[in-house]
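Hypothesis: this fold can be encoded by more than one sequence.
Test: take the structure tokens below, design a sequence, compare later.
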């Protein structure tokens, strides 16, 4: 994979700390792929390699206890211990160690017991970003059985930490909670961080429908260039009618970087090239049934 190629290159890096971190990550190949998928690690700096090694240590400890916990729960008993396996995992969410909270948050997603929803929701404001991300992924995994309490999730869109806001927006998009529509629209208007703005744009696009068209159109035309570019990168499907519509509108942005990026996306997703001529783009759009229906 591209990540592995980068790690292999870094293993021979002239910076000894980088090389050592990469070597440690390579040595733990058994769970490396799953860790990358779970935590979304794309960075190949020394800090990312160190984080990868730490996460794998937590995952190895999780695996060592997994069979005991699953057997205990499946058997409906306590295994002769004071508390059921599920309660044991939930109790570890209060650990002072981030890797213990992280491992337990992952376990609860695998077990997919609705009883874990409330404690996992509490981790969405955890001090550790990796813990927050895994808690969100586990909540998505459990959501077919039970959705988290929106009264606890929606306020996080205004949290002082931009990474908490980003994670909350990502979760709401994955859950496709229509009750989050208005709060997400308000968050997009208030947000200053490009990264968090991108997450809100993606969430709104995932919710879909014409009700998100006006706020997204306003954002792609009026917002600061850096935020708009982050929003473009976050669009889940550049070929979707709503995405094409806002990209055509972005051709009218005052910043040339935005216009160039919008044109590049449109050319790639449509196979057409009308330059920055919005009139020609919208004339073409009206010849495309699905896109024309969206624009009406």
């Amino acid at each position: 994979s591209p990540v592995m190629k980068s790690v292999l290159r870094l293993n021979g890096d002239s910076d000894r700390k980088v090389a050592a971190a990469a070597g440690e990550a390579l040595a733990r190949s058994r769970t490396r792929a799953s860790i990358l998928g779970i935590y979304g690690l794309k960075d190949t700096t020394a800090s990312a390699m160190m984080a990868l090694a730490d996460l794998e240590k937590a995952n190895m400890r999780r695996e060592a206890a997994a069979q005991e916990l699953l057997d205990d729960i499946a058997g409906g008993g306590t295994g002769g211990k004071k508390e059921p396996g599920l309660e044991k995992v939930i109790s570890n969410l209060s650990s002072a160690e981030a890797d213990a909270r992280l491992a337990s948050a992952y376990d609860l997603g695998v077990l997919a017991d609705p009883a874990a929803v409330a404690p996992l929701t509490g981790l969405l404001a955890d001090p550790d970003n990796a813990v927050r991300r895994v808690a969100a992924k586990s909540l998505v995994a459990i959501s077919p059985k039970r959705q988290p309490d929106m009264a606890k999730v929606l306020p996080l869109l205004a949290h002082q930490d931009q990474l908490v806001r980003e994670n909350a927006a990502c979760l709401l998009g994955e859950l496709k909670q229509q009750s989050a529509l208005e709060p997400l629209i308000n968050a997009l208007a208030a947000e200053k961080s490009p990264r968090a703005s991108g997450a809100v744009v993606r969430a709104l696009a995932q919710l879909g429908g014409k009700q998100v068209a006006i706020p997204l159109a306003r954002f792609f035309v009026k917002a600061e260039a850096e935020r708009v570019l982050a929003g473009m990168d976050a669009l889940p499907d550049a070929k979707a009618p709503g995405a094409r519509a806002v990209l055509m509108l972005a051709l009218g942005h005052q910043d040339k970087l935005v216009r160039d990026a919008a044109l590049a996306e449109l050319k790639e997703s449509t196979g057409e090239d009308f330059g920055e001529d919005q009139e020609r783009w919208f004339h073409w759009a009206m010849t495309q049934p699905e896109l024309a229906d969206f624009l009406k």
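The first helix runs from residue 2 to 10. The mean pLDDT is 81.
Hypothesis status: open.
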